[in-house]
From TrEMBL:
Short name of any one Pfam family annotated for the protein: DUF6174
Annotated protein name in UniProt: Uncharacterized protein
Biased composition (Low complexity): 35-47
Region named Disordered: 26-47
Originating species: Rubrivirga marina
Lineage: Bacteria, Pseudomonadati, Rhodothermota, Rhodothermia, Rhodothermales
Signal peptide bounds: 1-21
Entry annotated with the keyword Signal: yes
Keywords: Signal
């Protein structure tokens, strides 16, 4: 009886756990237009295609940006915020609080576009993306592959993107 009561109490406490966006100090998941999919692959939105084209026209292959990952992630050194330096379209350095960390912690704008395209291809149930009006890069990305599953959502926030010094 005591064991059952303790299990019930633990389940009640877990049910009150915050969502990943609340767990992480990075803030809320993106609130832009939300694509609600059926779990089946779909074509990317017209906004996605227009933004990707605008980014390609900008021709920025060397830039710096701040990247924040919002997820149910193990520790802050995975969520950031990271300063990412990209040269020739590839990550050159990633820093967290001024210290260099593994380049795998960062993402390029191209990789974010690939992540969004993959979400459409895999039939994500919710995709929320906001794009920079000048250069087209994603400023916030939120992907939920299954609204029935907890803690598998992922989001990114990009800020302060600027051309890198050559």
């Amino acid at each position: 009886m005591l064991r059952t009561s303790l299990l019930a109490l633990a389940l009640l406490l877990l049910a009150g756990c915050p969502s990943p966006a609340q767990v992480d100090a990075g803030g809320e998941l993106p609130s832009g237009p939300v694509f609600s999919g059926s779990g089946e692959p779909s074509d990317p939105s017209p906004e996605f295609e227009a933004a990707r084209e605008l980014w390609a026209e900008a021709g920025l292959d060397a830039y710096q940006m701040t990247l924040q990952r919002i997820c149910f992630c193990p520790m802050p050194d995975y969520t950031g915020p990271f300063e990412v330096v990209v040269r020739d379209g590839a990550i050159e350095t990633v820093t967290l609080d001024g210290a260099t960390v593994d380049a795998e912690r960062g993402e390029t704008v191209a990789a974010l576009f690939e992540l969004i395209a993959e979400a459409y291809e895999r039939g994500a149930e919710e995709i929320a993306v906001e794009y920079d009006p000048e250069w087209g890069y994603p400023t916030s990305v939120g992907i939920d592959y299954s609204t029935q599953m907890a803690d598998e959502e992922i989001a990114y926030r990009v800020s302060d993107l600027r051309p890198a010094d050559r």
